[in-house]
Structure formats: structure tokens, C-alpha cells
Amino acid sequence: MKKNKTLGEFIIEKQAEFKYSSGELSKLINAIRLAAKVVNHEVNKAGLVDIIGASGDTNIQGEDQQKLDVMANEKFIQTLSNREIVCGIASEEEDDFITINSHDQNHQNKYVVLIDPLDGSSNIDVNVSVGTIFSIYRRITPIGTPVTMADFLQPGRNQVAAGYVVYGTSTMLVYTTGHGVNGFTLNPAIGTFYLSHPNMQFPENGNIYSVNEGNYIHFPQGVKDYIKYCQAEEDNRPYTSRYIGSLVSDFHRNMIKGGIYLYPKSSKSQNGKLRLLYECNPMAFIAEQANGKASDGFGRILDIQPDELHQRTPFFCGSTKMVDKLEEFMVKSHI
Ligand code: AHG
Ligand code: MN
Ligand code: MN
Fold first, then answer.
1. Ligand 1 contact, 215 CB (< 6 A)
2. Omega within 30 of 0 (cis) for the link into 155
3. pTM value?
4. pLDDT tens for each residue of 246-295
5. Which of 39, 92, 274, 313 maximizes ligand 1 atoms within 8 Å of its Cβ, making it the mutation to test the pocket?
6. Which domains, from first to last, does the chain contain?
7. Whose CA is nearest to atom 12 of ligand 1?
8. Measured distance CA(229)–CA(236) in Å, rounded
């Protein structure tokens, strides 16, 4: 039987491809692999918490059960902080960025990581897929000094790696270092990720659109027109509508089957809902590396110059031809 490559083997094999090939980025991906396994274990137990709690023998330490997004945040931060590679972390769950090794002037840590530790958290209570999203940059300030905001506020095109974990019917880690996108599936029996989806690609076109249509009346005219186009009885339309409400899972499905994900601005939220730095940029990098496209409706997500850690942006991402079409409608509605 053909033996599938493990993620560990893959990381070592690909190390030479990195622009700065010192093995540090490999160590960083390894840290994420480890944190993903721990969080996966916790997420899988989520439904049991009440049952175990009722039996009265949980919480040996007498601690209250943490919310899973707080737990995931802690696990990722702990794992990433301990390896002398990362000099700063920004997270959806933290107001400010975290500085690592600020007192050790000899440290050589070069990378900053931005994470959404648990994406789709409203789906946890109902046993629906959730995820983790991460984005990695090289710092721009001198090594050995404390990180500054400028290290985090880089345009997405500067990312050196990005990826996500989807805790679904099976758990997968999907990532890119700028040389295509590869997906690894966890074998939970032995705790090893195997290369299951080499060289993932968005189909150029698709027939799935994913949007929270409950907000329809608040959408910009261009988005409303595009949705009507998706629903029209013409060519190979109407498209089919699929919306999980976890960006990671909606994106993952669309990358495999072909589709577009839309989170527009609305009259309620002027910049939409999704966060540029740890939701849209990493997904945009993966999309482009998989022959897809990511736009704010008028331009490339990866070219946006961020000015705030938690800033939001409208987000349209998926099969290139579908995102092109959406942009056409956006421009038309602005003329
Ligand atoms: P998070 O759980 O990290 O706050 O992210 C939730 C995001 C994203 O995953 C999802 O696509 C979107 O919110 C869903 O928003 P709506 O409920 O407004 O559709
Ligand atoms: Mn999220
Ligand atoms: Mn989150």
C-alpha cells in the first residue's frame, strides 16, 4: 500500500523552498501543527462538557470550563511563544498585540503571527465545523528589539505563510508558504497529519455562492445585483446556495467544489464584519496560491495597507471567474 507523506516529512522536504531557509519557518509550522492537535482534542470534547460536568468529577483543578475560543487562543499563544521564533502575536481575542522576548536583546526571533484562534465560534454549541486561521510575516523592525505596530500592519502580499485548520468531519490543516496550497488530514487514532490534498486549486468557475442572505436588504446594490444574477435561470444558473457561517468551512468547501464567498459591507456595518489581518488576508493568500481570487469588491485584498489591528473589510473570495463577475457588478452599480 502507498504510504502517504506526513506533515512532518513534508515540512522537512519543503524547507529548501523557503526564501530564508534557516529552518525557522519550518519550526513555526510545526508549532502550529502541535497547537492544532491540542485544540482539535478540546473542540471534539465540546459536546461532552455538560455530561461530564453533571457527573461532578470534572475540573480536578477546580477551574470553570473555559470558553473554547479563549482556550484556543491560549493554546496557540503558549505554543508559539515557546520556540524562539516568534517575536509578536496578534489575535482576535486580544485587544493589543503581544510582545515576546522584549527583555532579551539577544533574541533572534523574526516572525510575527496573526491568528483567529477559533473561527465560527457561534457554531460550537450546535456541533458544526469551526476553524483556526493564521497569518505569518517577517518583522520589519530590527531583530532583537521589541516588535512594534508596524510589524503587524503590513499589507497581505508580504505574508510568508498562511493557513487554516478546519475541525470538521475530519480535521485538516491547509497552508501555503507561497508555493501552492497543500492540505493534510489528521488521523486521530495516532495523532498524525497526512498529506491528503496536494496542490489544492480553486476550479476557475463554480456554481456555489455563500452569503448570509438575511442581510440582503442592507447590501450594496452591486452585491444585490450579483445575487440576483446567481439566482437567474440562465446558462448553468441558478447557482446553489451554501452557507455554514464558519468562514474556514465555507472557504474550504468552495475551494474544493468551486464557488464564491461574500461578506459585503452593509448599511449596518460600513466595512463588513470580517477582519482584514487574521481572517481576510490569510484566506486571500491561500486563495491566490490556489488559483482563486480575493477582492474587497473593487481591488485586491492583499494590496490593502492596514491601519488598525482589528480593522474590517468587505470580502469576496473564491473561483476567479466568479469574483471577476462580482467586481463587474460592483463597478457597474457605481457608474
Ligand atoms: P468568529 O467566530 O471568529 O468571530 O468569526 C465568525 C465569522 C466567520 O467565520 C463567518 O463566516 C461569519 O462570521 C459569519 O457571520 P454572520 O453570522 O454574520 O453570517
Ligand atoms: Mn473568525
Ligand atoms: Mn474567532
1. no
2. no
3. 0.94
4. 999 999 999 999 999 999 999 889 999 999 999 999 999 999 999 999 99
5. 274
6. 7-197 (3.30.540.10), 208-334 (3.40.190.80)
7. 245
8. 11
